[in-house]
Amino acid sequence: SQYKVGYLIGSLAKGSINRQLANALIRVSPKEFEFHEISFKDLPLYSYDYDADYPPEGKAFKKAIEDSDAVLFVTPEYNRSIPGGLKNAIDWASRPWGTNSFAHKPSGVIGTSPGAIGTAVAQQQLRSVLSFCNSPQMNAPEAYIQFKPGLITPDGEITDAGTEEFLRNYMAEFHQFVRRVLTVLPRKG
Ligand code: FNR
């Protein structure tokens, strides 16, 4: 069957290499996946003062996560962690207390960086946050993509055959993971 995958790009930069990676992942994905980007750029900085009267941007963001069968995080590493904007977005989705939008929502984590460890530290930190948010995560395969100039074109064409095969397999595995999780934890309503 078809699965709706909401993807979050951790970077707000116009020339984001992680956006290029997301475009590449969409190209090599199983046909059962249907993708939509979940943007967080318009969210204010979260505080629990908003909980009593959640603003429309906050509600729309939560709904976009809840309407997805699975979420895929494609994120850079900033100062050995995830970008602040992405953390802010996750905080918005996790609240108000008792309405955590990530609960039981299957997720995957991937990212690219020009550095040799390819966002590994940021991904570990993101996994820790998603664990607390009770999101079942695909543990393996992991994907730490070192971005070299020209590896992926802006619209997502992968120029290296080995990388293309690796990313195709990553998305095939993610499909199997999502299918398995939704078999035991079907989406509510
Ligand atoms: C970086 N960069 C970076 N790279 C990395 O591998 N580990 C790191 O900790 C950091 N830290 C960092 C902090 C800040 C504030 C910036 C702006 C950049 C470099 C980063 O990988 C590079 O800018 C990528 O292009 C970021 O991905 P996007 O934003 O282009 O998708």
From TrEMBL:
InterPro entries: Flavoprotein-like_sf, FMN_Rdtase-like_dom, NAD(P)H-dep_reductase. It comes from Aerolutibacter ruishenii. GO terms for molecular function: FMN binding; oxidoreductase activity. Residues 4-146 form the NADPH-dependent FMN reductase-like domain. One of its GO terms (cellular component) is cytosol. Pfam families: FMN_red. Its cofactor is FMN. It comes from the Bacteria. This is Chromate reductase. The keyword Hydrolase does not apply. Keywords: Flavoprotein, FMN.
